[in-house]
Amino acid sequence: MATHKLLLLPGDGIGPEVMREVEKIVGWFARNGVGFETEADLVGGAAYDAHGVSISEAAMARAQEADAVLFGAVGGPKWDGVPYAVRPEAGLLRLRKDLGLFANLRPAICYPALADASSLKREVVEGLDIMIVRELTGGVYFGEPKEIVTLEDGSQRAVDTQLYTTGEIERIARVAFDLAGKRRNKVSSAEKSNVMKTGVLWRQIVTRIHREEFPATQLEHVLADNCAMQLVRNPKQFDVIVTDNLFGDILSDIAAMLTGSLGMLPSASLGAVDPKTGSRKALYEPVHGSAPDIAGKGLANPIAMIGSFGMALRYSFGLIEAADMLDRAIANVLASGTRTRDIAAPGANAVGTQEIGDAIVKEL
Amino acid sequence: MATHKLLLLPGDGIGPEVMREVEKIVGWFARNGVGFETEADLVGGAAYDAHGVSISEAAMARAQEADAVLFGAVGGPKWDGVPYAVRPEAGLLRLRKDLGLFANLRPAICYPALADASSLKREVVEGLDIMIVRELTGGVYFGEPKEIVTLEDGSQRAVDTQLYTTGEIERIARVAFDLAGKRRNKVSSAEKSNVMKTGVLWRQIVTRIHREEFPATQLEHVLADNCAMQLVRNPKQFDVIVTDNLFGDILSDIAAMLTGSLGMLPSASLGAVDPKTGSRKALYEPVHGSAPDIAGKGLANPIAMIGSFGMALRYSFGLIEAADMLDRAIANVLASGTRTRDIAAPGANAVGTQEIGDAIVKEL
Ligand SMILES: CC(C)[C@H](C(=O)O)[C@@H](O)C(=O)O
Ligand SMILES: CC(C)[C@H](C(=O)O)[C@@H](O)C(=O)O
User: Fold this and answer.
1) Between the CA of residue A41 and those of A51, A61, A347, B44, B68, what are the distances in Å?
2) pLDDT tens-digit profile of A118-146?
3) Count of domains observed in chain B
């Protein structure tokens, strides 16, 4: 029985309760021949409370060792006042950077059964299936200088630096074109090349990679503000959207919200493939946040977290059959009407976090 | 008869044809006792074609002299290949910067008669009335360094700099709180303080201005990605949103698109009030762009441009009665069903750009 090393980082808010449901699924697979070696550790506010940092060196070492990291969510009002360097989000940012997880895949899928939960008209979003490919280790998130300085007159000046290199843009472009080839073969590249030099370089390099390596794929360039508009106006025009770290943060949240299925959407953050082992570092997390308002109440929808584990089965472990099985189990549970509050049909009874996990295990 | 100095910069694409309709309105006011001294000049691609720059020094001098600038739109595929420094958008950016137009007011209003034109459900957007206050002369648009450098190995590195000072944030915060006081008295301040130092400073200063000067206004801080989500999920929760140049670019486009009335939305860009004269520099422009695909066909909706002139009447010339009159005339024309293609009721006959202008003059 092969074992796969999985690190669970539940984090804060609803993180721990949705992670508990993933553990049920992992347990089921273990009982049925797919072994996982799981460890768990703290991240975010929980790590800060225990260690005074948002991720400990020990947890970082475990993440480096793991075949895949499952990440819940971080943050909450409790830690609003903690120093910038150890705020909950810093743990996530360090994981992304130190593991080299440059490619963030965020599917936005509108499940037909849930189309009415969207604030958009059914016909605008029904059947929506977009993949946002967000660059995750560069741009304004990590560029230096990044500082606040106090000037002579006592006033302050804050600076962030948006920085991209040829190599960073090339590798994320390739991920996007590759994915498009397995989908509807269209890539929309979003930047602000009319205002930003990083956007100018981004457009140049994406254009070249397209011409040299993926000429059969349809490529369009779209300004990020217009892309946001078009996502609201007619999202089905898109297949794969490739964009930088900051625009990706915003555009992927818009795309997720369109679907009416925010509690359903998983994501994968992938590193480069190691030419020696053929494997890559990876972290899987739900698109939703820590939702402090409903934390601990057993109301959270665990499907995005469970789906993130499904993405790990597929992308990190090559267990395509197991991943398909899990996806089918999720779909069946949804179809049976067993749903949490956020996606329950009007008038239908909503169930809690645990019931969803149990129902999926039962389906398996 | 008082005269007011107006500079018309129609620009590219549909800019000239929607500006022509404004001239009709200006003409009507002139015949009825409100005199304007109008000049016109080139900007954007049109200026590039004539002078090799996106705005000439002569046009800049006229803009400095004017009481208000009316700006159409710039850009189009024709100028996609021109050098970065003289691309069409550079003319607009220079106007904003050199005139010190730091406060960009972008109302997003959903006209009940047009609610069905939105891609969002009627109940989500009907009656929507948000004001986005976007900082317009700072941030990543103007920060230095802003460059692409070629490294020793032939690869390139692009840099943009996001920069904000105490003073820049204070003055835009005041504009937002001031406006909120005349509305529903709520300000939502959007930034990425969990990732960006400029966001940290932004939040600090907005918090202080609120405490010291506008304690009676409701203030909430919202992360920009969440703000984008909430705009899609439930936009009516917002009154005034204050945010930086780049987030404002994206968030205001989302807000505009929600309304289903993109061709209807005006905007104002205002400078500081001169303590001596009590006046301020100002530029008024529609939220929509140059729409090269329909340019020259007489299909464009001129209402955003005419409404921008209405904002000039109100904010630059203090002609409140005239502004109200113009707003009423626009509303009456809309109510009568005289509409351009973009907002025509399903099955109804759409009219052209000129018919709308004529109909508004007739209503006046
Ligand atoms: C938590 C935060 C740092 C993070 C980001 O801005 O990247 C989040 O919004 C996300 O999209 O994963
Ligand atoms: C034309 C462009 C430079 C401009 C901007 O990015 O500010 C436009 O998108 C806007 O919002 O006015």
Assistant:
1) 12, 11, 39, 56, 60
2) 999 999 999 999 999 999 999 999 999 99
3) 2
